[in-house]
Amino acid sequence: MGLTVECCQHPNDGGALCPGDSAGPMVGSRYFPTTTRPLSVHPPTGELSHLDGNLSFKVVGRPAERTRVHNELGAANALNNLGNAYSLQSRYDKAERAFREALAIHSRIGSELGAANALDGLGQIYRSQLKFQEAKSVFMEAHKIHSRIGNEMGRANGLINLGEIYNEQSSPSGAEAAFMEAHEIQSRIGVPLGVANALLSMGVIYLRQSRTLEAKKAFKDAYDLYSRLDEHLAKTLVVLGETQHAQHRYLEAEEAIMEALAIWTSLADDQGQAAASLILSQMFRSQSKLAEEANALLQAEGPLARSGQHSSHAWALDRRGDIYFAQAMYAEAGECYRLAQAIYSSMNNASEEAQELLSLGVL
Fold first, then answer.
1. Helix, strand, or coil (residue 285)
2. Is 257:283 a contact under the CB 8 Å cutoff?
3. In angstroms, rounded to a whole number, what is the distance separating the alpha carbons of residues 230 and 292?
4. What is the C-alpha to C-alpha distance for residues 255 and 267, in angstroms, rounded to an integer?
5. In sequence order, what are the residues at sequence separation of 6 or more whose Cβ sits closer than 8 angstroms to the Cβ of residue 42?
6. Residue 344 in contact with residue 314, Cβ under 8 Å?
7. Nearest-CA neighbor of 256 among 277, 242, 246, 275?
8. pLDDT tens for the chain, residues 1 to 363
9. 355-359, long-range: CB within 8 Å, 24+ apart, which pairs?
């Protein structure tokens, strides 16, 4: 039996985080994801496979031959990783040697994706050393391979690399063409981060050509995409934090929610800030950390007021008043109850207003 090596698209099944409708009785918001469907990858049965990105490298033949080829494939991938490590350390000679050895192995066993990845690594090494012609040559070779095997992601990334080289060589027309094609591919296959990166690069090209309006639009579109990606990350962090909290991993849970809060603060997103702060307050409450809970509630009040969530704002004030009352901080408690009472009064909510007046009467 002969030895067959082929590179093919590999199926995958995945899902995105789905935002829910609310966090509970206090706040209604789009920032509380409720369900997740994990990504899963199913290798083909009955044969050995090496997964690299979204491609499956399959080797069919006698067991001894399959074992030999997969051993070589593993060695080549390790060399690619070694090259990347040396590159991060600016040890370019060692990095180039590792990438060239990886390229030789991948080429010998017919692993086209591995060969393209090694060429991409070489291109980055050359670019770091300002060897733009050498970088352009290997990037073009890698791009041809990605195109031939149908690896659209690799093809788009290769075009970004080529565009940067054209830019370094003062060839704005070549750079613009590469970035625009990368933008088209990333848009078609649905990779928002890649689309945003391409738009950002195009904006720089337009700015250098004094094409101000085009540059402004490219930068704005890129910013909008980056913002949406940050929002998705924040929602993911909320899911992670709530999961860790349920597992009693409190410190990790708090860090995840605080990171989500920082993202929403950077985006000036009041609903996100309010939601994250209220989640933090509940986490602290479950641990009887009253001072921390009060601070989290205080942090939520500004965003709640700005986003028009008056009932939730009044609830947060009332809860903060209860905390201060328990700590014998009566003046602070009274101020919170009065502010909550004023909000309920403005909402014509006589029942809740009466409760605040009762709380004030106890002081």
1. helix
2. yes
3. 26
4. 19
5. 11, 12, 13
6. yes
7. 242
8. 333 333 333 333 333 333 333 333 334 343 443 333 332 233 233 333 333 333 444 444 566 666 666 678 888 888 988 988 988 888 999 999 999 999 999 999 888 998 999 999 999 999 999 999 999 999 999 999 999 999 898 899 889 889 989 988 888 889 999 999 999 998 898 888 888 888 888 888 888 888 989 989 999 898 888 888 888 889 889 989 999 999 999 999 999 999 999 999 988 899 999 999 999 999 999 999 999 999 999 999 999 999 999 999 999 999 999 999 999 999 999 999 999 999 999 999 999 999 999 999 998
9. 355/318, 356/318, 359/318, 359/321, 359/322, 359/325, 359/333
| DSSP letters spanning 109-163 | HT-HHHHHHHHHHHHHHHHHTT-HHHHHHHHHHHHHHHHHHT-HHHHHHHHHHHH
Using left for φ > 0, alpha for ψ between -120 and 50, and beta otherwise, residue 335 falls in alpha
Cβ neighbours, 10 Å, residue 328: 8
pTM summary value: 0.54
Q: Which two tokens mark 268? A: 């000036």
**Residue 249: other Cβ atoms inside 10 A:** 14
Query: What are the start-end ranges of the H helices in 212-329?
Result: 212-246, 250-266, 270-286, 290-306, 310-326
Are residues 295 and 307 in contact, defined by beta-carbon separation less than 8 angstroms?
A: no
Q: The tokens 């939730």 sit on which residue? A: 312
- Cβ-Cβ contacts under 8 Å for 46 (sequence gap 6 or more): none
Distances (CA, A) of 24 to 160, 272, 307: 45, 15, 18
Note whether 133 and 122 are within 8 A (CB). no
Longest dimension (CA), the chain: 92
Query: Residue 322, exposed/middle/buried by CB under 10 A (0-12, 13-18, 19+)?
Result: middle
